[in-house]
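Fresh eyes needed here. Have a critical look at this protein's tokenised backbone.
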Amino acid sequence: MNQGHVSSLKKTMDAWAKLGHTDLKYLNNREIPAFVDSRQYIGGLFDPKGAHLHPTNYALGVMQTAQAAGCKIYDETPVLSVTQGSTTRIQTAHGAVNAKFVVLGGYVKIPGLPRLNKKILPAAMPMLATQPLGDKISHKILPRNSAITDANHIMNYFK
């Protein structure tokens, strides 16, 4: 982190406070070690309502909820075109699907949909896993078991 990140964190805290989320606490460089054993951070925000997120379990939960509501999921099915009308027609190499609502996931830049393509933000979520570290090491790294992220544009997330 640098002083620009610190300033950005303080602005973020003020913006959240205006929305009613007043629980955030700014942490200075002397307070950081209580949350993470790293010298990379000179400041931070602590959100007592924050939590860890397991992206795969989250995606599976969203998928299961959608299926329970009647959604049909066609995974590993590249979309060739989308035709919008009273219903939406999705054309694939193996057939077509007509639906009232369509959710596209994965790499979804589709020929013929320039308006939609301009609103797509490519995002990567690289992950690194280690063998279980055990309580002694994991509590040294994250003494309060807090979820940690940095203020860089390309986010690093630690759990």
About this structure: The chain has a mean pLDDT of 83. Residues 64 and 71 are 9 Å apart (CA to CA). The helical segments are 3-18, 55-68, 114-117, 134-141.
